[in-house]
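Usage example:
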Amino acid sequence: MDPTAPISVGADADGTAPTSTTITLPPLTLRDVPRLPSALASSPAAPPPAAVPNPISRHPYFHPPATFYISPGDVSLRHAFFDLAAAAPSPLIAYRRAGPRGDLAVDPAAARAALVTCGGLCPGLNTVLRELVVGLQELYGVRHVFGVAAGYRGFYGADEDHVRLDPAAVDDWHKKGGTVLKTTRGGFDLGKIVDGIVARGYTQIYAIGGDGTMRGAVAIFQELKRRGLNISITGIPKTVDNDIGIIDRSFGFQTAVEIAQQAIDAAHVEAVSAVNGVGLVKLMGRSTGHIALHATLSSRDVDCCLIPEVDFYLEGKGGLFEFLYGRIKKKGHAVVVVAEGAGQELIPRTDDQKREQDESGNTVFLDVGPWLKSELGRWWKREHPNELFTVKYIDPTYMIRAVPANATDNLYCTLLAHSAIHGVMAGFTGFVPGPINGTYSYIPLEDVAVAKNPVNVNDHKWAWVRSVTNQPDFLKSQA
Amino acid sequence: MDPTAPISVGADADGTAPTSTTITLPPLTLRDVPRLPSALASSPAAPPPAAVPNPISRHPYFHPPATFYISPGDVSLRHAFFDLAAAAPSPLIAYRRAGPRGDLAVDPAAARAALVTCGGLCPGLNTVLRELVVGLQELYGVRHVFGVAAGYRGFYGADEDHVRLDPAAVDDWHKKGGTVLKTTRGGFDLGKIVDGIVARGYTQIYAIGGDGTMRGAVAIFQELKRRGLNISITGIPKTVDNDIGIIDRSFGFQTAVEIAQQAIDAAHVEAVSAVNGVGLVKLMGRSTGHIALHATLSSRDVDCCLIPEVDFYLEGKGGLFEFLYGRIKKKGHAVVVVAEGAGQELIPRTDDQKREQDESGNTVFLDVGPWLKSELGRWWKREHPNELFTVKYIDPTYMIRAVPANATDNLYCTLLAHSAIHGVMAGFTGFVPGPINGTYSYIPLEDVAVAKNPVNVNDHKWAWVRSVTNQPDFLKSQA
Amino acid sequence: MDPTAPISVGADADGTAPTSTTITLPPLTLRDVPRLPSALASSPAAPPPAAVPNPISRHPYFHPPATFYISPGDVSLRHAFFDLAAAAPSPLIAYRRAGPRGDLAVDPAAARAALVTCGGLCPGLNTVLRELVVGLQELYGVRHVFGVAAGYRGFYGADEDHVRLDPAAVDDWHKKGGTVLKTTRGGFDLGKIVDGIVARGYTQIYAIGGDGTMRGAVAIFQELKRRGLNISITGIPKTVDNDIGIIDRSFGFQTAVEIAQQAIDAAHVEAVSAVNGVGLVKLMGRSTGHIALHATLSSRDVDCCLIPEVDFYLEGKGGLFEFLYGRIKKKGHAVVVVAEGAGQELIPRTDDQKREQDESGNTVFLDVGPWLKSELGRWWKREHPNELFTVKYIDPTYMIRAVPANATDNLYCTLLAHSAIHGVMAGFTGFVPGPINGTYSYIPLEDVAVAKNPVNVNDHKWAWVRSVTNQPDFLKSQA
Amino acid sequence: MDPTAPISVGADADGTAPTSTTITLPPLTLRDVPRLPSALASSPAAPPPAAVPNPISRHPYFHPPATFYISPGDVSLRHAFFDLAAAAPSPLIAYRRAGPRGDLAVDPAAARAALVTCGGLCPGLNTVLRELVVGLQELYGVRHVFGVAAGYRGFYGADEDHVRLDPAAVDDWHKKGGTVLKTTRGGFDLGKIVDGIVARGYTQIYAIGGDGTMRGAVAIFQELKRRGLNISITGIPKTVDNDIGIIDRSFGFQTAVEIAQQAIDAAHVEAVSAVNGVGLVKLMGRSTGHIALHATLSSRDVDCCLIPEVDFYLEGKGGLFEFLYGRIKKKGHAVVVVAEGAGQELIPRTDDQKREQDESGNTVFLDVGPWLKSELGRWWKREHPNELFTVKYIDPTYMIRAVPANATDNLYCTLLAHSAIHGVMAGFTGFVPGPINGTYSYIPLEDVAVAKNPVNVNDHKWAWVRSVTNQPDFLKSQA
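Running the assembly step on the lines above writes:
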């Protein structure tokens, strides 16, 4: 962008009408997704492979208009806002827009799809499964759809781990929490998984899971490519914590924030009903504090929100204890929300605990909730031994993540599942579907597997939580 | 865009890795918003008016980093996706990004804000009011904030229609449905309103309402400008129907879709518990079918969704009766969701009804629900006199719109209110705050007052509802 | 009772300790229920018929203690309170206590049960069905259990109206509203029904329905007895209105009161958000106002509760309009709850409407809700033409009655179903199970079919609603 | 009862009609409640003290009929069912019926009421407080009503612990969980409390709390009597566990059972979504398993319900592990509900833990939930080391007890509060109001303070949970 031609603010001297200013944008870079071998021309000069017309066009009730199908040039922008005055703007990145293509690179009659869920529960899992089954069969006529039970290990499991699914079987799944396909952690054995995929003749894999699952999907994608197989793999990111980057948000997140209100309400009631009462709620979020932050903003009954992105300390000037004491003296009570991953460095850890890892290879988190509850009790007993004090601690994790998706998430899961199917049918593989600034798009699986989504505490949005809680920023240098 | 350099789809012959393609974008046009006279330089050559440093920087607990404030060049893009292959791309429109500015054009100590709500209820109204009060006082230190009761007519009403508000008074408003400031329709008398504003010394008006309210706000803006007054007016669009354009969605909409599920569930239960039962639910939506559409997609128990954007007919081949008969014979029951504005041209209307208008000047809608219920009963009695039949009709309108906002909408209302305040403090007027592709932005009030937001039934998204209901498209020519 | 020896109040001169006074009670009369011919001795001198030991005693996991089975002398009292000082106390009526008997008069291996639901929906219907199926099979080993679809007419319907049920099939029915067996009104043809029962070999009929269904069950009972058949019929009273006498309350009632709160909340929000706003809610209750009364008491936001048991009038001194005007002037708004059957005599009725009856033979009720809404509007326009006014009317009937039962009602439905089964297995017929002062009992079907349960407005309990609403008693003579 | 004249079962040879049998009942004993000195005649021969007419009779809107007031002979029966055939029937106990009396022994103008809440939270606490305030003022015109903060210690606390309450102040309390008057445990100092009562001139004490609070109220009652003071004390039993005897059930219990469903649902979803998953839910209930039992019956997703009244063991034949293994192998998962007080004798306890007591003098319970979770994990790892296994443990205690009362409990709290007031106004003291077989009655405080309410596991009702779970009875001798 030409820094010699910035937009000038308030250029209209009389402010009478909206004004228009024209700026030249930098070039745009398309970040494309891979394709199946069969979807590629054999050489740059070769003709494209024979395409199959999209069967939606033959739908008995529905007659798609010209604008119905996505064109090859349809892209979405990664960044929806810019600082035009900046001398060196961020490069503009684009992704392919998700949606149905007029011509398919995959023959629905020959397709055999496998769906698998891995990792912890998240509201909407069953809706995604339901919509993959319904979309594959009713939009495209894919008749062979299987649920693979018990996570990745199901691919090399027994026959009963491979369950044929059809629209009638999944009809009410969107009203159920959890996953009807059971889920597990770990069990990732690349060779056995790909052998299992091949042995059972699957041509489309839909892997629904968290960051570990996405990294596994990348490995499967690369192995499938190495073997030159016409089998696609799609990752559908599932993280109730909303800790996956690039996409706008993950499914189940809005539901989680909604249900978290119940826990905060209970903590607030317990706190206000006691003398010098503290209500303490631990919410999900190992690497990011999105649920804690959003639940705090929606509730407004929270006095302090502790998230992994902001270090805090307990004692001394500007510390948590000082802040809470002031709040209790002023209001008679206080409510604290702490994200799972906050304060990990403050909790004393044994050598064993330092070494431990969970089955997906994640560092084992110590439980910040009981630790903080205990520290609060010890602090008060030490500093204010003659005053009553109560801490009520609530860990609503399973009551949050096991509910069915709310209406907003149910709709989102539908669009996500359909976007995935459309992409697979177009011959894409190694990709993740997801909304980018509201536009459903296809993103390389490799990019999503490494993208993080921390709460940006330097942005003005963080001020929202501050305007709600007026909590300190725990910057010792300020103290 | 240079049509000689389109992106080529599948350019990577081996599909081994995500590829990058670079394209030149067309220029961008900034659609700016007006400013107060005091925020404008007296002439293009004059120095800018004396600015007030943002008091957030003096906040005792919070120390804004460099990235906290919005820069003059920060803009958002109206369209987040494009067809790069199109020969003549849409012009790229941008808006100013919402958020706090480092320098204010308004002195908080001299500010006197008035909040008013007009038109029908919508989940989140009280949250917007609460956050305007809290944001004005706690972020900016504005001490004079008033609620104006009973809509626009309150501006020229009695003293008791002007209620002083502070954070303590509004503390739990976000947990209440409706509006604590009472709302009315009509009563728009431009001269009296502006006279009232001036007489009471208000310097900032926040008008929350629907399209009629936005048109009224435009008139007030123009009159204020005509009189050369340093009084800003901001419109906060309230439409449970989601029928306002440019912005991503309106507040309360997600809550409405959530609660609508209860009505659809009840209609579904009534239908399946009867012999040849039909459950009929009327949902809000005079000019657009967004609630009906989203509720249908989230529920999946709906057999037919009728919206204003798609004409339908009752009798004959391809008509509603034929479709419902088939569905009842197949499943034993059917559920129909009809938006308020659907089928208006089918309902017989007396001459009086043709002339009538409501207080806001909207055409009076005939009630499609009882009419359709009656038509269904008459049809069945005529065509299938010896078979049992039941229609249960539910109109959940007030039970939907009177609830408090859910967590998602509560958060949205907060961001909307804070965005409005930041803009006013920066000296903007005649604008609407709202999210555009996820980025909160400022849009000229005049643009929003005329923007519509119909359901795009030619887009592939409409296929979602079709894949859920498999309903006919009521194109007679196809029949 | 000897009136010469009344208890003396405050007989203990120092009030230091609880005192005991002993009184002689009047004799007790047992109101017994009929038995199957096979359960009766052939003559007063003959030995009792061969009994079957209760199979619960052979349960692999459960070893019933001695106190587990109901003894032949176990009875419950109809009245749990008395005025001991009254010269002529009411006769004391007792009923057989419900529960398992040690010896059965019915061989479970030969039993063939039919379940049928009639009339309108009520929360808990599916729970009753589920527990009948589960209880019959798991407690008693009855293997032949059938659901009869579409109400009484299903007995002479097609084969597909007779659906075999087992515990797996009904597993989640308690989480569903409505009735999985479809329900209808009317279709009562005694000869065809009993012929159908005989033809299909049913030996136990469980009829779930309202007062019309109970009267039908009495007719079936008498016809079965006339034909000398060893077929039992049990009536399970279903009335969301709670208008059936003798029993403590009907299932689904607590759920209905709970959900009615949502409608009252919405009406309250609409009323307070308007200028001179009235929220009007119509609740179920044709002959009794129990739902309206309980919902009013639970909500406390109601200004006036109109029920069938209390006449009211609109105009003049002491009338509804005068009361509402006062309330609106004082509080700015008012909320009115009206039971379906209130004010029927006030609504103008055409000759046709005077003659009409519904399929169950009930008088057709005119819709008091829209009538009252319209009268309110006309009154205000006439009396206060220059003041704003709004009436928002909500009819939540189907949204209330179609929900699943809440926990309280779910448990109640279980006890009701099990009580029914235990009675049938003991050889009883022509009875209704139900709680009497908390004790599950067996009541002659004939008694229940004619018992009413009006709200006792002369009791001090009616004062509760009065203390909540302070509404007038519409006694014109007082005015 | 004359054993020579038992009722004969099936005396009617033809079973054609309900029969009547008449029996002589044993005498009835009235268990009276104490009165204030001022309500007692000075000697048996003296005339009764001057009575005040009930001000309800002067109510402007309401004209109580003759049957409105409770007569001196109105009593309720403690037992609503009997075994008439038993040779020695239980003595029949009666209590005074609650409700308004025509003549008061207390002058409302001189009354000064104090309300206090003690112990843990329970849904409905605030409703009881609200209705005491509203009932005292609106029914009786008592103008001096105070809330005493922080439990019994508030009586000798600072001035700000004594808050004047009126209907406007408490208007929306029934919609709030917890207690607006803060609650504490302990702090019971009899002398200081009674001195405080006298010093502040209170004439009526309403103490809302659990068994410790009731024992404290007995001591206060006795001290007030010893001092000869005309001050009444009423105990309103609050126990979310429903562990107080004589009365039908305690307030908040139905709400607790309702909310417990959410925790069981979540545990069930977690269990079915895992491979060999166990969902474990701990519910309130130290001495009784009512919540666990009712929640299990309402849910039907529970495989095993462990309550304090039934011992259980983990290992060996007939033990919990054996049962769960079978259930997991059969269904793939299991759900266990454990009451707080179950298995206390199984948990290893240190010497310190054996000695510890809480502030109310209750034995400190060890937390059965984490212990059982850990035992389950160790068992599986030991016995089935090569099979996946997951236990998800949920402790919803605070999320259950902190919610507002549901409609059923809200109504119950109203009747309880009004009953308390009517009794106090009639001159009673040292009593507890409560429903006995559905009739609100007055019970001596001393009786309630010692009454227990264990689940009767020998009654046929316990069979309900057995028919739902088919769990073993943990009788080792059977094994």
